[in-house]
DUF3352 domain-containing protein (Neotamlana laminarinivorans), 663 residues
Amino acid sequence: MKKKHLLITGLFAIISLIIYLFYLFYVDNNDNIKSVYLIPEDAVYILETQKPLDDWNAISESPIWKHLNTNSYFNELSENLNTLDTIFKKEQTLLSYIGNREILISAHVYSPKKYSFLYAVDLQKIAKLNIVKTHLNTFVNDDFKVSNRAYHQHEIIEIYSNVTRETLYISFIKNQMILSYVHTLVEASIDQYNEPKIGRDLNFIEVNKEVNDGNLFRLFFNFKYLNDFSNVFFNEETEYIKTLNNSLNWSGFSFNIDKENNIIANGVTKTNTNASIYLQALQKSGTSKRSIYNIAPKQTALYTSFTFSSFSEFYSNFEAIQKENPEQFKNYLDGTEQIENFLNINLKEHFFSWIDDEMALLQMQSSVSKSTKDVALVLKTKDVDDATENLNYILNQIKKRSPVKFKTVNYLAHDINYLSIKSFFKVILGNLFKNIEKPYYTVIDDFVVFSNNPNTLKTIIKNYTEKETLAFSNDFIDFNDHFDSRTSVFTYANTPFLYKNLYQFADASTKQSLTKNKDYFICFPQIGFQLSPEKDFFESRIAISYLDIELVKEKYQIKNITKSTKNNSLTEKELTDKMNVDAVFNIPEIYPNDLTAKYFSRKYSNGETRFSVELKDGKPHGKYFSYYKNGKLKISGKYKNGAQSGTWRAYDFNEDQVLRKRF
């Protein structure tokens, strides 16, 4: 009888446990909290994956991740995820529950020049069993020390690594496990529990709703903190970053990888109430087909295109939006009126009337002067003859009122003129174009190209005449197929070329980091981004091509510079009377960056003058001297209208003449 009662009691206990577990796992769902409610509001970006720990190996098998995982930045991300994996390894049944649960990874700038990650793991119903928290001490080995402390009625578990001397901070809130190597991020996450910000942000909610699940992950970018994130790496705030920071709200993307290892992301972007007048105007102005890439050089580092149904429609919207800010609109009217009165021109008649349906900014490496700061503004024309006639009229008006006397310079059958009007483009098109200051310009095909540096124009002309443009690049044409031909905004980056430009503007520590991580940057040789207007947001797309790093170096002829080659480059050859006369006096073409100047020179890295030459109308005309690195005279001679003239002389290290040639 006792056995019978014992059996009944045991069965009752088992049934009760089953009922409890059934209720726990399948009925009681009222005590869960969303992961996003625990993400601190200053997240720069949030990565969401539905394939966490048990699927991590599958993701890490891709060629892209294998390459990136050798990089310290991505290796940290991988190691952190593997740390989570280590915590659960001893409890195999736990993996079956956690395997398809959500993980959010958010990036935060937690102090000047420093950022780190917060991880939020949705344990869902398994959290109710408290297995992870209860047995956390048993999941780690002797290389770790485990302690805990309280913060705002929540326990924070600290796992200290004796090997790395880093501490992983973990806390449990309802169904969520939050982790970070920065304690302030875990504390900020706990604070969000009572007052969540991002999860209640209407813009984030709308973007989240529009972004489909991808094969890999979803990524949400918070533009409010873009500038803070940029300051981690760079000392200067660019107009691009400033415009994005002030204009955009949230972007969300769903990421996939195609068979060619291209990363493709589709999503949406929300503008904020203070969106730049460009984006507001573009959103209302339709689109057209991009075509400026037909004259953009192959070595273009960055190409940003803006299209619209017509420039007149875009500019009408541009003006209408400015009217909403009376002070800003007054400044705009005052500026345009001042230009018109000073030059006695009508901007709408003489300038705006001939602009068609696309304008673009190009940033490139100069093929003629080796400059890394070449920027050009390109305007597509309705009728190139009409554009030329109106620009000539403006030029004549400038010449009447400007002390600068500049003659047109011809380069490869293309005229280069000088538009000496200060702040012209800033006044009529706003701050995004403020750096195009007193530009030179030329006409190429159906386009007018403006740049502060005449060598930029020469680069574009030279590449166009030699058919070395993006239109003749198979890589670009294939990559361009990932995007719609008609979009409001399209940005294309060629990272091997962009690398040098970024290095130029980076601070010292970032330059060191860029050098160290160069292979992880240029392995994605092409990156593209588009915005297409759709109701009150922009449909967005990102495409990133991946190529084996050795193939990238071969394709772009990138060589690793060793100490020995650097030292060899400092070794200078002395001129002697045994050398070939023609070779010694074959002076490379000179490309002055100011065609109005009377004098042009270049210096060595040690500050000594490399060469100096007198100029006339942008061409070498007058005395020429070149020097050794120690300042000693190397070659002397004269130019006449761009050609070598008279007797030229060459000298050895002692400044004794060793060669001469008559031109």
User: Anything to note?
Assistant: Residues 1-25, 87-98, 561-570 have pLDDT under 50 and may be disordered. DSSP finds 25 helices and 26 strands in the chain.
